[in-house]
Amino acid sequence: MSLPLMGAILFPLCLIFWTKPSRLLEFLLIAGIFPAASALTLGGLAVQPSLVPGLAFLSYIVLQKMLGVRYPGQTDVMRLCAPMIFSTAWAIFGSLAMPRLFHNQVLVWPQKLDAFGARTLLAPSFGNVTQDIYLLLNVALMVYAAQYLTRYQVSIARMYYAFLVAGWMVVVLCVWQFAARTAGVPFPKTFLYSNTGWSVLDSQVAGPVPRINASFSEPAACATYLAGVLFSTVWVTLKGYRVRGVKPLIAASGLCLCLTTSTTGFATVAIGALLLPVMVVATGAARLLGRVGQLAMIAAVLLGVSGLVVATFIPKAVTGAQSVVSGTAEKKDSASYKERSQADADAVSEFVETYGLGVGWGSNRSSSLVPGLLATVGAIGVIGLMMFDWRVIRAAGWALKTMPGCTECLVIEGMLAAVLGRLIAAIVSAPTIGMPDFYVMIAVAIAAVTRIRMAVRTTGQPALRGETAAV
After folding, report:
1. Contact of 328 with 266, CB cutoff 8 Å
2. Angle at CA 382, nearest 5°, toward 376 and 388?
3. CA 452, 460, 143: angle at the middle one, nearest 5?
4. Stretch 27-54: mean pLDDT, rounded?
5. Residue 459: exposure state from Cβ atoms within 10 A (0-12, 13-18, ≥19)
6. Which residue ranges run through the membrane (predicted)?
7. What are phi and psi of 21, to 5 degrees?
8. Any long-range contacts for 289-298 (C-beta under 8 Å, 24+ apart)?
9. How many whole angstroms separate alpha carbon 373 and alpha carbon 365?
């Protein structure tokens, strides 16, 4: 057993702030940007940093529950989370039943490939157990965090500010790593990549351009997180919320996403750009169309000016950019793309071969989210997740119309936009979304919706007392 530097920082902090659960959640959101690090190493098992404040938070809340403590909005939270809880229960049941029901009848891609890198016959495995544990912890975090954050004594806006701080930290690490790769500036690899159970791809290049992964295991994972930051900051700015540091973060996160040269990141941003007018119309905020046009013009001018400066003073950068563009365009012809596409096709085949029931949570690893969910939790689990998404979106829409402009609305829109960005990236190219901070972000949005419901029931008026989203 060993305690890396990350753990030496997090464990004392969580011990000091154990009686302040909101601070633990803030630490979790920040620690979520260090998935390639380890807070505690036990043989070949490494504990992710975000699990330390997550487990500390759960231990406090469970103790409170045992003592009979109830939170003001926990009934509303449970109603919103009911489909997700059902899907989780089905996933755990499936992880136990399906590998035995379809034992040796279906070929699957295991969670960790063996030396041959081939599909194996379906059978119960340790992957079912470990994935069940991660799923239970994540959903428990989501439910209990949402319940706790319904307390009016808690500043829910701090959760969103912690997310923005985490976004700025990723930006700093991206620039730092870029300086290290190009100018030899020292970079804390040992601190950031201490998780021995993960393969860290921190030396990839796209032509002459280094691919940046910051504190993540690979450039695509970094781009996925930055896509969430970009979606959130752009949407919050378009909606007119005044939050310090958000507008510069738009440019900074967009630049760092380009430094990753990730096809996943570029595709996610392109999809977001196509969805933006649809979201504007769907939310009934037609006045935002003018702001969208203004933002597009500003972005075009900045890109044009910066491109001209770079082409004039750094000619090699033009060659590098051309290499990145050509590499992205030719991605579909690469061996890795064909392997990923085959993994997704195999996942769909598993869904069909098991009559829509799936092979069980943790039994198969796909390349993208939707085929992976179909293959593991089947039609029943996917329908439950869709019901959960629809219930949260509908409740958020009602809350935004009921109390427009309040702090809770800022949190709802900022967090859900970030969740959407990461979700789109996962649909493009990620087998699952298993990071605790993602579930806490959903919890924060649910708690904000519930607080608005409680305010309406208490006062009967569409306004929160003395709260504003302008900071």
Report:
1. yes
2. 135
3. 25
4. 90
5. exposed
6. 40-63, 84-102, 133-149, 161-179, 216-238, 245-263, 295-314, 369-388, 438-456
7. -60, -30
8. 291/237, 291/238, 291/240, 292/238, 295/234, 295/237, 295/238
9. 10
* Cβ atoms < 10 Å from Cβ of 249: 21
- At residue 323, the pLDDT reads 55
CA 151 – CA 168 distance, rounded (Å): 28
Which DSSP string do the residues of 434-457 spell out, in sequence order? --HHHHHHHHHHHHHHHHHHHHHH
Q: Coil, helix or strand for 39?
A: coil
3-state secondary structure 299-323: HHHHHHHHHHHHHHHCHHHHHHHHH
CA distance 32 to 221: 12
**340-374 pLDDT, tens digit each:** 788 888 899 999 999 999 999 988 888 888 999 99
Residue 128 CA to residue 18 CA, distance in Å, equals: 31
What value does the mean pLDDT take over residues 90-114? 86
Interhelix angle 288-313/263-282, nearest 10 degrees: 160
In the block, which residue shows the tokens 């700025």?
Answer: 168
Ramachandran region of residue 467, left (φ > 0), alpha (ψ -120 to 50) or beta?
beta
Contacts for 54 with CB less than 8 Å, ≥ 6 apart: 24, 28, 137, 141, 436, 440
pTM: 0.89
- Higher-pLDDT residue of 311 and 182 is 182
**Residues ≥6 apart with Cβ < 8 Å to 127:** 110, 111, 112, 362, 363
Distances (CA, A) of 297 to 226, 310, 455: 22, 20, 40
Residue 118 confidence (pLDDT): 77
Contact 424, 227 (CB under 8 A): yes
From residue 312, give the alpha-carbon distance in Å to each of 308, 316, 317, 318: 6, 10, 10, 9
**How far is the C-alpha of 313 from the C-alpha of 299, rounded, in Å?**
21
Of the given ranges (97-106, 133-142, 184-193, 269-278), which has the lowest mean pLDDT?
269-278
What tokens does 333 get? 């012809």
AA identity, residue 197: G
What is the DSSP annotation of 117-178? ---EE----HHHHHHHHHHHHHHHHHHHHHHHTT-TTS-THHHHHHHHHHHHHHHHHHHHHH
CB 45 within 8 A of CB 85: no
The DSSP letter of residue 332 is G
- Work out the burial of residue 43: count CB atoms within 10 Å of its CB; fewer than 13 is exposed, 13-18 middle, 19 or more buried: exposed
- Taking phi over 0 as left and psi of -120 to 50 as alpha, with beta for the rest, 326 belongs to alpha
**Cα–Cα dist 22/3, whole Å:** 25
Distances (CA, A) of 155 to 29, 37, 132, 444, 467: 15, 29, 32, 11, 11
Look up residue 470 and give its two tokens: 């302008």
